[in-house]
Amino acid sequence: MSKQSIFGRIAQLTRANVNALLDQAEDPGLMLDQLVRDYTASISDAESAVAQTIGNLRLIEQDHAEDVANAAEWERKARAASRKADELRTGGNTVDADKFDALAKVALGKQLSAEKEAKDAEPTIASQTEVVDRLKTGLTQMRGKLDQLSSKRDELNARVKTAEAQSKVADAVKSIDLMDPTSEISRFEDKVRREEAKVLGQQELAASSLDAQFEDLEDLDEQTEIEARLAALKLGA
């Protein structure tokens, strides 16, 4: 993945307006699931690319540090060769002194070459450091956006489940209204009242029969009394 494509992908995803995307989606739940998958995959790709970019920067920094160290080492060697040449020349050995001066010049040339390489690498290190910082910031924003998407998805799923439950309750209430169970209760109540009325009638009927029996008994007693008095009259005559 090229550096430009990394920047483009990160910029596109971090600028994405989640609410606007959901408003345009026919099925927000599926849209969120897809966005979470896309963000997760994009973050994984971006992390690999950023890690590679950081690794390249660290290699350049290591080479730069090595060039700086080499430059310092060649400077040390040049000074040592120059001092040795001065000592030899002071002692009258110009031939060997010239050899050590030549070695000092070689060391100085190596020093200049190392310093140039180190200096040439510094703009690259600076620009790559800026790139890495921007990529890290973008990754942080992408992770934040992924957290936002995940939270939004969980919230939406919870709302969908709540809506489904409310819909079931509404359907149940509607079916109860259509069935109108109060009419069944009224019919049952009427049946119970009729049964109660029947029992009252039977009780009343039984009571009437008993009253009649007592009346018959009273009539029999009265007739017996009449017969007894009639018999007494006859005996008195």
UniProtKB/TrEMBL annotation:
The keyword Coiled coil applies. Keywords: Coiled coil. It holds the Pfam family PspA_IM30. InterPro entries: PspA_VIPP1. Residues 139-166 form a coiled coil. It comes from the Bacteria. Signal peptide: none annotated. PANTHER family: MEMBRANE-ASSOCIATED PROTEIN VIPP1, CHLOROPLASTIC (PTHR31088), PHAGE SHOCK PROTEIN A (PTHR31088:SF6). Belongs to the PspA/Vipp/IM30 family. This is Phage shock protein A. It comes from Frigoribacterium faeni.
